[in-house]
Specification:
The protein is α+β, with helices and mostly antiparallel strands. The chain contains 3 helices and 6 strands. Strands 1, 2, 3, 4, 5 and 6 form a 6-stranded antiparallel beta sheet that branches. Strand 4 and strand 5 form a beta hairpin. It is globular, with a radius of gyration of 15 Å.
Length: 112
């Protein structure tokens, strides 16, 4: 569920999350295709790369999430492991890319 923050009215309809479900980076990218995402990181990989978290804001432009980013910078939550701003899917290896492409082909009914 998304809700609009008062500050968002001045910044092109940024959406902020009120439902604290943890999503992987790619689940969030698939949930908000083509949008910029600001995520509170809850899980990192071996190289300290963000793997999963809670989406705090999403918007079709990076400027649209900036008010939320600035709110967090000004008033950081206690014990926050980190934050991540990105747009699009993330792949850590070739096998992940091939798996993603195979799933897309299967969804379109094509042969691999």
């Amino acid at each position: 569920m998304t809700t609009r923050r008062p500050e968002a009215d001045q910044h092109d309809d940024a959406q902020t999350e009120v439902d604290p479900h943890i999503l992987t980076v790619n689940e969030a990218a698939e949930a908000y295709p083509g949008e910029w995402i600001f995520m509170k990181v809850m899980k990192v990989g071996e190289r300290n790369e963000p793997l999963a978290g809670i989406v705090l804001a999403h918007h079709r432009t990076q400027a649209g999430i900036n008010p939320v980013v600035m709110d967090v910078i000004r008033n950081p939550p206690m014990h926050a492991p980190g934050f991540y701003t990105y747009n699009g899917l993330r792949f850590t290896n070739r096998a992940d890319v091939e798996d993603y492409l195979a799933r897309k082909q299967a969804a379109r009914g094509e042969r691999a």
